[in-house]
Automatic annotation (TrEMBL):
<feature type="transmembrane region" description="Helical">
    <location>
        <begin position="138"/>
        <end position="160"/>
    </location>
</feature>
<feature type="transmembrane region" description="Helical">
    <location>
        <begin position="268"/>
        <end position="293"/>
    </location>
</feature>
<keyword id="KW-0812">Transmembrane</keyword>
<dbReference type="GO" id="GO:0022857">
    <property type="term" value="F:transmembrane transporter activity"/>
</dbReference>
<feature type="transmembrane region" description="Helical">
    <location>
        <begin position="101"/>
        <end position="126"/>
    </location>
</feature>
<feature type="transmembrane region" description="Helical">
    <location>
        <begin position="77"/>
        <end position="95"/>
    </location>
</feature>
<feature type="transmembrane region" description="Helical">
    <location>
        <begin position="166"/>
        <end position="186"/>
    </location>
</feature>
<dbReference type="InterPro" id="IPR011701">
    <property type="entry name" value="MFS"/>
</dbReference>
<feature type="transmembrane region" description="Helical">
    <location>
        <begin position="12"/>
        <end position="34"/>
    </location>
</feature>
<dbReference type="Pfam" id="PF07690">
    <property type="entry name" value="MFS_1"/>
</dbReference>
<feature type="transmembrane region" description="Helical">
    <location>
        <begin position="299"/>
        <end position="320"/>
    </location>
</feature>
<dbReference type="InterPro" id="IPR036259">
    <property type="entry name" value="MFS_trans_sf"/>
</dbReference>
<feature type="transmembrane region" description="Helical">
    <location>
        <begin position="236"/>
        <end position="256"/>
    </location>
</feature>
<feature type="transmembrane region" description="Helical">
    <location>
        <begin position="209"/>
        <end position="230"/>
    </location>
</feature>
<dbReference type="InterPro" id="IPR020846">
    <property type="entry name" value="MFS_dom"/>
</dbReference>
<feature type="transmembrane region" description="Helical">
    <location>
        <begin position="46"/>
        <end position="70"/>
    </location>
</feature>
<feature type="transmembrane region" description="Helical">
    <location>
        <begin position="356"/>
        <end position="382"/>
    </location>
</feature>
Amino acid sequence: MLPFATAYHRRLTWRYFALFIAIGMTGGLLGPALPHLADSVGASMSQIAILFTARAVGNMSGAFVTGLLLDRFDGHKVLFAMGAIMVTGLAITPFSPLLILLAGLFGILGFAEVALNSGGNTLLVWLHRDDAGPNISALHFCFSFGNMLTPLVMVAALSLTGQFHWAFWVVGAFALLTLLPLLRFASPHKTPTLDSDTPPATTPKHSDAVLLVLFMLIFALYVGMEITFAGWVTSYGVLVGLAAKDAAILATLFWLTLSAGRLLAIPLLRVISPWWVLCGCTALGLVTAWALHALWVPLSIGALLFGLAASAFFPTLYALSNQVMEMRGRTTGAIFTAAGSGALVVPSLTGPLLDWLGAGAFPLLLAGLVILMSAGLGLLALRLRALGQATHAEAVKPLPRGEH
């Protein structure tokens, strides 16, 4: 069971969960809709790939802007404004007659999608404070669950209407239904109000630029790794000799265990340290990448194992950042902007790398990313130790003579 301090916490948290299913469904639309969008604007598959870049650029700007807004305005009104942009974009995107217009609309959708994502994460942390860890894992499970639902919505839309447009409209309608109830709730605040039932944070928080930069780098590496695996594993499967229909299911296997692992992390984070979860994820990721390189396991098993390795990393790292840093809106915005940069850069480099070094470079790239993430975690632990020692030294420093 998830920890809820009051009925207000329980009701609002479940509404955030519903919203994140809608956000995940929006993020998952591009893949299933890609061939239909290409047909609608008369673009080749290489040309339509610009939509991924447009969405990634929108992702980065959306996180940054929302972080600034949350520190100044009512959080739920900010979420509703960003949600209105997303719903409008979902309504009009299928009508786009030109590739350049379609790219602009996906940039807007990417902006609104990550604005809601970063904003929802921030408000959940402000709502639960030091008890946020399991709830963050549940929130990200809902996002992954939404991703898994989208292909089913697309199949249903095509079967019932023959038009892919309805998938966008159904997701938009569901998103609107999850946004409207939020306006009835008081928004969580960065610091508890005097009449709030939310207990103040009990863990010392650091305000340190180096610490934030380390978190940003690790988030960028992780998201780049996740998007690279999900986006390129099908192509990798074809390159190593799998039939196209068998390779197509690899991404589904990855998302399946990624979602299951996030569900498993909910009780885990209540009983063990986030550091153990992060170390377990990186260890399993490195072993799986090497097993794929050495051909020790079938690719289907490798996809399942790598999904499990990736599953709990993002929500656990985010929960850890909440434990050790003051999570202002701009802090979350910086983290999600870094994550967007990883999603933009790393997958873009994968194609040229495969062309240059061949299919065998794919598992080695994954292993390299996991090693860099592990190194980042090591530097993070060292920085936290140094900050803890500095805080302790400051606390025990004797008062100057004559002061009491």
